[in-house]
Sequence to fold (229 residues):
Amino acid sequence: MTSDGLPPDAASAPRPLLRSPWLWAAVFGVVVLTGLKTCSGKRLVPLDKISAVPAFTLVDQAGRPFGSEDLKGHVWVASFIFTTCSTVCPRLSDANAELQRRFAAENLDARLVSFTVDPEMDRPALLTSYAQRYGADPARWTFLTTADGGTAALYELIAKGFQLAMGERAADSAGAVDISHSTKLVLVDADGFIRYYFDSSEDQLAIIVAYARELGIEAAEAAREEAAR
Fold:
């Protein structure tokens, strides 16, 4: 897994360019997007199970415990933000708001989970205000922080569980908080396996919705088969 969250290149090639995960991620996106535009109604390119998200329990915007057990059986999209971020986080949160709208419009049982990377500042009350700013439906979109404001367990979950780069909390010369973190949207299936890392572009949002639909169908089929045994 690369430091920015893209899955490693599974193909070998004699030239270094063809070993680049960025190249293959771009090719994958083009292929899937083309398929969405020209092969409506057909099955999408299958996504491998990259790794399982470790079990976790944090605190949601209402101050209640919330974790991986609450997400079992649901396809979900993870993102990483902090409320005082004025650069990439508003764009990520706008993307989540758009995904929420599309999930609801298609009646998809898919969830959104935004992890703060600044739990010291982002306590539940502040996350509630932030959620309201973006029109978050608490039944679909959850914001998570740590119970005690600590960062160790959360940063370990991000770095080792989601396999994403995570920087330290710092302040710039003006005193504004700056935290380097991933801007990826992480698609997780109903069994808790990471399936792919997307960006927040319009084209990628369309792909996320299509895969959320597909993975939801797979999960429902698996549940029916299990019940029939």
Q: What stands out?
A: The domain at 50-228 is CATH 3.40.30.10 (Glutaredoxin). The CA atoms of residues 221 and 227 lie 10 Å apart.
